[in-house]
Amino acid sequence: MATGSSNYWEDLRKQARQLENELDVKLVSFSKLCTSYSHSNARETRRHRYSPDTTPLLNGSSQDRMFETMAVEIEQLLTKLTGVNDKMTEYSSTAGVTSINAALMHTLQRHRDILQDYTHEFHKTKANFLAIREREDLLGSVRKDIESYKTGSGVNNRRTELFLKEHEHLRNSDRLIEETISIAMATKENMTSQRGMLKTIQSKMNTLANRFPAVNNLIQRINLRKRRDSLILGAVIGICTILLLLYAFH
């Protein structure tokens, strides 16, 4: 029974290694296809820029078909490898298997990591390819619009350019007028606020000026009272001194 289980495990490992090898080869080719698609479209863009009448040598639709075919094949291989890993997981969860071979779980984890890496690499390469194709489709539509514009009537193009320039001048004039009005409004608001501040300062100055005479009068009264108190105190001291002298001589 143990021998049969061991053979079953080894058969699963062989299937997993075979699928991993096939996936590795497919992913390398898939990545090269994405790179060649990017480079070929870059060359086509440069060729189109410098010689618009040149017909591109590479056929993008054939590359798109190759991409779709390879993507389907890789997805099928990933599905098969996932199924093998699931069977290996079921086998490892069988009672008594873990106690027989402790390295079995390590091997299973390594196959899971490989599957995860391949899946991540496939989705990343596929996303890059789709992004490049979408960008090239957008650039292609832009180039078509430019070509259609260039191949139009020269007089109409010239008139269109003049109209566009005139429209742009009008927009710039409107923008300058709006900026000037905004600056004038801001200046008016600043002058109004400054006027209010000056009025407040003037009212405070008038209030202080009105209060100064009253303060001067109060200070004069305090000085007079201090002088009167000093005279009274001097008189009292003098009288006391005279009385002491009279008392001492008698």
TrEMBL record:
<keyword id="KW-0813">Transport</keyword>
<dbReference type="GO" id="GO:0006888">
    <property type="term" value="P:endoplasmic reticulum to Golgi vesicle-mediated transport"/>
</dbReference>
<feature type="compositionally biased region" description="Polar residues">
    <location>
        <begin position="52"/>
        <end position="61"/>
    </location>
</feature>
<comment type="subunit">
    <text>Component of several multiprotein Golgi SNARE complexes.</text>
</comment>
<comment type="similarity">
    <text>Belongs to the GOSR1 family.</text>
</comment>
<dbReference type="GO" id="GO:0006906">
    <property type="term" value="P:vesicle fusion"/>
</dbReference>
<dbReference type="GO" id="GO:0048219">
    <property type="term" value="P:inter-Golgi cisterna vesicle-mediated transport"/>
</dbReference>
<dbReference type="GO" id="GO:0005797">
    <property type="term" value="C:Golgi medial cisterna"/>
</dbReference>
<feature type="transmembrane region" description="Helical">
    <location>
        <begin position="231"/>
        <end position="249"/>
    </location>
</feature>
<dbReference type="GO" id="GO:0015031">
    <property type="term" value="P:protein transport"/>
</dbReference>
<dbReference type="InterPro" id="IPR023601">
    <property type="entry name" value="Golgi_SNAP_su1"/>
</dbReference>
<keyword id="KW-0675">Receptor</keyword>
<keyword id="KW-0653">Protein transport</keyword>
<dbReference type="GO" id="GO:0031201">
    <property type="term" value="C:SNARE complex"/>
</dbReference>
<keyword id="KW-1133">Transmembrane helix</keyword>
<protein>
    <recommendedName>
        <fullName>Golgi SNAP receptor complex member 1</fullName>
    </recommendedName>
</protein>
<dbReference type="GO" id="GO:0005801">
    <property type="term" value="C:cis-Golgi network"/>
</dbReference>
<dbReference type="Pfam" id="PF12352">
    <property type="entry name" value="V-SNARE_C"/>
</dbReference>
<feature type="region of interest" description="Disordered">
    <location>
        <begin position="42"/>
        <end position="61"/>
    </location>
</feature>
<comment type="function">
    <text>Involved in transport from the ER to the Golgi apparatus as well as in intra-Golgi transport. It belongs to a super-family of proteins called t-SNAREs or soluble NSF (N-ethylmaleimide-sensitive factor) attachment protein receptor. May play a protective role against hydrogen peroxide induced cytotoxicity under glutathione depleted conditions in neuronal cells by regulating the intracellular ROS levels via inhibition of p38 MAPK (MAPK11, MAPK12, MAPK13 and MAPK14). Participates in docking and fusion stage of ER to cis-Golgi transport.</text>
</comment>
<keyword id="KW-0931">ER-Golgi transport</keyword>
<keyword id="KW-0812">Transmembrane</keyword>
<keyword id="KW-0333">Golgi apparatus</keyword>
<keyword id="KW-0472">Membrane</keyword>
<dbReference type="GO" id="GO:0005484">
    <property type="term" value="F:SNAP receptor activity"/>
</dbReference>
<dbReference type="GO" id="GO:0000139">
    <property type="term" value="C:Golgi membrane"/>
</dbReference>
